[in-house]
């Protein structure tokens, strides 16, 4: 529970106090038994490590049955400036049973070159008894050390597969990361700079921030505050813009009351730019949320992205005709008497379309493969790669496999922080494994191996 909630190990003592308080009300005669339970930080850390080890053992057993697997590799830097390499694995067995798990989290205290990342990935794969001959795909964050043509991680993995005599794996850039980068082509710096400046002026000083919140209460505003902008959080811009737009009148009045002139808040053209950015970033946030979550299939994720690209074409046509049915913020200004010219915003939509073609070129290359994977039983055999045509015919004529496939896809719609900067690498990996795993640790078996730890604290 502590690991899943991302809480520090010291929270065990708080949990114990809660248990004792509940016991004193529900079963006071047994309170003394609960008081002897040890939930010290060391005990909690050890128990989480035990749970993690059990889950890892289960993963290794299941991994031996994979008929194919892929990995997702991502590198980040935590609050202590330590590089952490996360490797997730997704595999499927002969019964079409798929699983997705954290394979490992590797601390990288030295250099983080492609060669070093490759060595760490090889160790993780080979230590977990994952044969290279079943390696079918790799997804990365698109950094140069990952995607360099000659010496990037993907290139080194392809060389390794060639040495092992394995067919080349599919290499993709993380689709969520691509979508976040794609959305950044919508600059509108004239809008963002003013919004961020106003928010910073309001929130930078405690007294002024409190006065602003009091002002909103007096105005009986729907919201109690503006949102702080964090550029690294992908959903931040859309949420910040929407809240600012809803509070634009209150922000303008407060700034004027403080004798800080923000003239653009009275400029109808600027306000329309703000409204358009609110509407389009909202749609981008909706797309981003659709791409998130464990168990996402690449075919379904790419379908969502393609659907958004098709919507862009629709919105371009509608904006050119001043049809704002899908742009509620813009429509609100038009209803209030603000004039609207769609040409500028059509150009912004065109930029998004061009960026889409550039960002998702690698996915387009594998579009036919995605379609075969998503529904091999209705895919036209003539359009399939020649090496797959005979096997595809056999598959489409196998009623038992067709039934299993349909059943699979009906059910498949499948913590370091500034407060915990001293957490060890082993404990970090244990927490992440326990908090993200779909496997259930064998608690009963783990308990049998442990002697009872009695707390020496007096309650």
Q: Strand order of the main beta sheet, please?
A: 3-2-1-4-5
How much strand content do the residues show? 5-15%
Order of helices and strands: HHHEEEHEHHEHHHHHHHHHHHHHHH
Taken from the alpha-carbon principal axes, the silhouette is globular
The helix count comes to 21
Radius of gyration: 27 Å
The low-confidence parts are 411-421
Structural class: alpha/beta
End-to-end Cα distance, whole Å, is 23 Å
Biggest pleated sheet: 5 strands, mixed
Average predicted local confidence, pLDDT:
83
- Percentage of residues in helical conformation: 55-70%
- E-strand count: 5
Which descriptors would you attach to this protein?
alpha/beta, 5-stranded mixed beta sheet, globular
Report what the structure shows:
The model is unreliable at 411-421 (pLDDT under 50). This protein has a five-stranded mixed beta sheet with strand order 3-2-1-4-5. The two termini are 23 Å apart. Helix 12 (268-291) runs antiparallel to helix 14. The longest helix is centred in the middle third of the chain and has 24 residues, at 268-291. 24% of the residues are buried. It contains 21 helices and five strands. It is an alpha/beta fold and 459 residues long.
